[in-house]
Amino acid sequence: MASNGCSGECAGCKGAGAPGSESRRTMLSWLLGGGAFASMASFLYPVIRFLNPPAVTEAAVNEVDAGKVQDLKPNSGKIVKFGNKPALLVRVSDTEWKAFSAVCTHLNCTVQYRDSTRQIWCACHNGTYDMSGRVVSGPPPNPLEEYAVNLRGDEVVISRRA
Amino acid sequence: MTMNGKAMHWLDERLGLSAIREVAAHKTVPVHSATRWYYFGGITLFLFGVQVVTGILLMFYYRPTTAEGFESVRFIMTRVEFGWLIRSIHSWSANLMIFVAFVHMFSVVFTHAYRPPRELTWASGIVLLGLLLGFGFSGYLLPWNQISYFATKVGADVAGSTPVIGGTIARILRGGEDVGAATLTRFFALHVMVLPILTAGLIVVHVLLVQKNGMSTPPWISAARVRQMKFFPNFFLREAMVWYGALAVLGALAAIFPWELGEKADPFASAPKGIRPEWYFLAQFYTLKLIPSHVWIIEGELLGILGFGLLAVCWALLPVWGVNRAGEARTRLVSGAGIFLIAYLAIFTYLGYVK
Lengths: 162, 355
Known about the structure:
Number of strands of chain B: 4
CATH architecture of chain B: Up-down Bundle
Strand content of chain A: 25-35%
Order of helices and strands of chain A: HEEEEEEEEEE
CATH topology of chain B: Cytochrome Bc1 Complex, Chain C
Distance between the termini of chain A: 76 Å
Structural class of chain B: mainly alpha
Shape of chain A: elongated
Order of helices and strands of chain B: HHEHHHHHHHEHHEEHHH
Structural class of chain A: alpha+beta
Distance between the termini of chain B: 70 Å
Number of strands of chain A: 10
Radius of gyration of chain B: 23 Å
Largest interface: A-B, 9 and 11 residues
Strand order of the largest sheet of chain A: 1-10-9-4-3-2
Shape of chain B: globular
Number of domains of chain B: 1
Oligomer: heterodimer
Strand content of chain B: under 5%
Helix content of chain A: 10-25%
Strand order of the largest sheet of chain B: 1-2
Number of helices of chain B: 14
Largest sheet of chain B: 2 strands, antiparallel
Largest sheet of chain A: 6 strands, antiparallel
Number of helices of chain A: 1
């Protein structure tokens, strides 16, 4: 193959060897390649936009009903739905209630209440939080978000703090 | 050696690309009055590629359940960016693909390309057309809307009137006694796994057979004297331009006439007016309508399905009855049969559409 990228066959082509034929060939190659590249880009653009998931708008939840007072014994906790995320409700003593976001700040696992140590524990990487949501040990970088707990009659209500 | 040349050399040593280049360099396409018909197989293949790409994209959002199927398609159409475009292209491309496949088939009939040694190419093509119709039938149900729900009920029922094995076929198709949640997951599995694997495999066979036997020239043209065009790059670039044209048509159709979604299927609602299958089943649909419920002692539907089955088998055997002992095409007989079939399909499709 010749160094100009032209195989021997094109010697018989019309205009081959004529002055300017090589630059015309180069320009045509660029036009063809550029056109192919531009159309590929125009096909890929909608595909990439399509793959990007649209934001699903959800009603922001600020308050949930977490059940009855008598359903949770002192020194125990349970996971309740708070919007589409889990929350941890803990009855510390007869009268003291606490609630936190149950999403570990380390890698998104769901935490649990441990009655033996009276701490919040994440089973995934052994992170522990105290009953104010602060990190006691393990890898979590940030404290758990604390929610407010109010009793309305015998209903326990968890709400986001203002 | 340039960087590019070095890279090609490196790849060539490992992959044997020069062998492929050698084959491509020797492949030629005959140039004559009917050359334009050679493009249609390629267009069908291109549209199949479009179906694979857009189909995979739709699967990112589609959910094959009766509870969420319709809603997920509506979500694609209304919420996902360019979702309306992807789905409309998928629907339009499906219809164009079947249309172009029919054009391709009839071009083979009228240029008599089915004659020896291309009998298997013809037969594999007929099976491929059947698979494409299967894609159409199974894909029609997936949006789970009212029209497709009832069309599938009717279609499964028609399949169910096949003698002896009909009941089993219908039960296997529906995944039960009626069209419902089980049918949707089955049709989804067929549409996205079973049919694509079979079709892709058979396309490879079909294309390899074309490579093996070369392009056929019509019997009225002397193959020895006809001018040849190099496949690569001459024919290839022309084909690429045709593909661009097909894509432009597709994009325009999808943008100007986005595919409708209709209403969600309700198994406990009466069938709405104007239930009809996709256009490529209309001729059969209308024929079945015309056959009386009983002809002599045979049930009408059974007669219809036997007739269609017989017709399909005869058509697949075209290289047998369309060729004389010397291996030459019986051009008058076959062209006559082709014209008759086109006339039947055109008239009955039209009648099925307006009545």
